[in-house]
Amino acid sequence: VSAEILLSGNHAQIAKWRREQAIQRTSERRPELLNKTKAVSR
Q: tRNA methyltransferase TRMD/TRM10-type domain location, by residue (predicted)?
């Protein structure tokens, strides 16, 4: 799925995918940061 999004050329979709991936990585590695900033709700 990620390759399709990245190769699609749709910059809005790419930015959304990157944001989702960043939040997922942060929740796995530093969940206390998400609890502090509530970044998931953006």
A: 4-36
Predicted TM-score (pTM) of the model is 0.70
**Separation CA 16–CA 35 (nearest Å):** 21
Q: Looking at the 3D structure of the chain, how many domains does it have?
A: 1
User: pLDDT, tens digit, for every residue of 1-42?
Assistant: 689 988 999 999 999 999 999 999 999 999 999 886 665 555
The first and second tokens of residue 26, run together, are 């942060």
Say whether 40 sits in a helix, a strand or coil: helix
